[in-house]
Amino acid sequence: TGLVGSFKEIYSINGFDKKQQANYIERFAQHIEMGEEKTSKLQDMLEDRSLSELYETPLHLSIACLLYIEEGQLPNTQTELFTEVHDYMKNKAKKRLESQFDERHADIDQALCHLQKEAFECYKREDTDLKDANFNRAPWTPEDYSQAGFVIKKSHARRLKPAVLTYGFAHRSYHEYLCALHLSLMSVEDLEAWLKAIRVYHHENVIIFLYGLLQEKKLLTMVSVTMEKMTSQIMTFYSPCSQSHLIYSCIKEMNTVSAEIADVIADHCPRDITISRHCNEGCLRGVLAICRVMKIKQEKLRLDVDLRTSRDLIPIMKELSDAHCIECV
Question: What is the reported pTM?
Answer without folding.
Answer: 0.83
